[in-house]
Amino acid sequence: xxxxxxxxxxxxxxxxxxxxxxxxxxxxxxxxxxxxxxxxxxxxxxxxxxxxxxxxxxxxxxxxxxxxxxxxxxxxxxxxxxxxxxxxxxxxxxxxxxxxxxxxxxxxxxxxxxxxxxxxxxxxxxxxxxxxxxxxxxxxxxxxxxxxxxxxxxxxxxxxxxxxxxxxxxxxxxxxxxx
Length: 179
Hints:
Blueprint: H1 2-18, H2 58-64, E1 74-76, H3 89-101, E2 106-112, H4 119-139, E3 147-153, H5 164-170, E4 172-178
Parallel strand pairs: 2-3
Antiparallel strand pairs: 1-4, 2-4
Helix pairs in contact: 3-4
């Protein structure tokens, strides 16, 4: 008898703890679809958009995001190295000149490695490569707020395969412009 009473109190306590003072069934629901015509919720009676949102011109924004015209955006590195080779100095100077002239522009430098090595090692090496390019930009007068350095390690190879040519093309830092 005592067990049955204790069990009844326990069930009552659990049910009382699960109840909520908010009545979900009584929440007000507003029907805003009464004035809409057709399947496009932003379209008016004649099919034109009345949302007030300006259309996005992807062609113009893509051209702006390109950065300096005719300048490559990839810096290649030697095996197990994050030293910028002298042959890429002019590339970095061109991008730095562009960024100094357009201080509202921002870039993301993505560091990559080849497939050899562990994931953690490659992430660290990719970060060192992107940081090396970021530091070079800083030495050339580009503001820190314009440049972000990230690493993808070996996760986004430019060229698949395990040949020395594929490895050489995957050891890189890519400069990507953001708006």
